[in-house]
Every structure is written in C-alpha cells, then in structure tokens.
Amino acid sequence: MEQQVKFKTVGREMVEKAGINVEELLDLLVRNASAELTTYYYYTILRVNCSGLEGEGIKEIVEDARIEDRNHFEALVPRIYELGGKLPQSMVDFHNISACAPANLPGDPRNIRQMLEVLLKAEQCAVRGYTHICNMTMGKDHRTYDLALAILHEEIEHEAWFQELLGNGSSGHFLRQGGQNSPYVSKFLPTR
C-alpha cells in the first residue's frame, strides 16, 4: 500500500525513534479502519434482517455494535493522517484491504444463530487486530496505543455479547449507561 509523507511531524519522529516501523503501523491502521467501515456497512444489512421474535431480540445489541464500529472508524482516521498516512482514493480498494473478512449475511438470513456466528467472527477478528496494534505500540507510541486500547475494550465487549447470545456463558452485559455508545472511544471523537 502506498503511503505518502508530505511533512514529518515530531509526533511521527518520536514514534520512529521509539523503534516502530511507522509504515507498517500505518498499514495496520488503514486495514483496521477498512474493517471498521465495512463492518458498519455489513452490520447495517444484518440488522435490517433481524426480524421475527428472535431477530427483534438481538436487534438492539447489533445496533450498539454497528454504531460503535462506525465510531472506531471515525477515531482511527485522524491518527492515520497524523502519522503521515492516508486512506485509499477508491472505496473498492479500501474495502478489499480490510483486516477482516466481510460480515456477510448467512446463507439463510432468517437463521439468527448463523447470524450471531457471523457477528462473533467479525468481533474476534477485531480483537486480534487491536491486540496486535497494542502489543506493537505499548510503551512506544502512546497516542496510538491509547486509541487501540480504547477500541480493544469495546471489541472485547462486543465479542462477549455475541458469545452470551450464542449461549456460551454470560458477558455480564448491561445496557450502556444513558444509552450512550462508545464509552471507551468517545474521548477520541469530536463533540457536537
């Protein structure tokens, strides 16, 4: 993937001096931004197919994960540009470099269990990706680490929610306080 650095910031210089390959980090950040945006898109399709009594039962939790994945994308983009990276010009190219496979509808879109398995796989991929970025940046790139850790907190919760819905144990999940999404990532989002 082509990365272009027009100017070099001290913020980037400090990350490089700490021993991080910034181009490799940018590649991971862009691929994870793609995964977040495409997951948001595919979760939209999954959500509208949550019908019937079983589907209605999971619609709200799918919506929370959908909105939070969009927020993750919004929070990642500024960090990509701060480090001298950029997003691909083509949405098709951006989609095709995603760190995670598309969260497509299952063969039978009315099968809620299969839908939950799709959701679970998407969240597990995200947990792996942000754990990798945290391990790479811990103690070296404090800003990226803080962001990746905030996203990781929410992705781990999403995974636990879907594990619980599949009957694999309790996540200890409660409704988001005040109905507000992204309790960990909100500090990285612009206020309105």
Q: If you had to describe this structure to a student in words, what would you say it looks like?
A:
With 192 residues, this protein is mainly α. The chain has one domain: Ferritin, core subunit, four-helix bundle (Ferritin, Up-down Bundle). It is built from 6 helices and no strands. The protein has helices at residues 10-17, 22-48, 52-82, 91-96, 112-137, 142-165. The radius of gyration is 17 Å and the shape is globular. The chain starts with 9 loop residues before the first helix and ends in a 27-residue tail after the last helix. The mean pLDDT is 92.
State the gist of this model:
Keywords: Iron, Iron storage, Metal-binding. Residues 27-168 form the Ferritin/DPS domain. The chain has 192 residues and is mostly helical.
Key features of this structure:
6 helices, 192 residues, Ferritin, 0% strand, globular, mainly alpha
List the helices and strands and how they pair.
Blueprint: H1 10-17, H2 22-48, H3 52-82, H4 91-96, H5 112-137, H6 142-165
Helix pairs in contact: 2-3, 2-5, 3-6, 5-6
Mean pLDDT: 92
> Which CATH architecture is right?
Up-down Bundle
Q: What's the number of domains?
A: 1
Overall structural class, as computed from helix and strand content, comes to mainly alpha
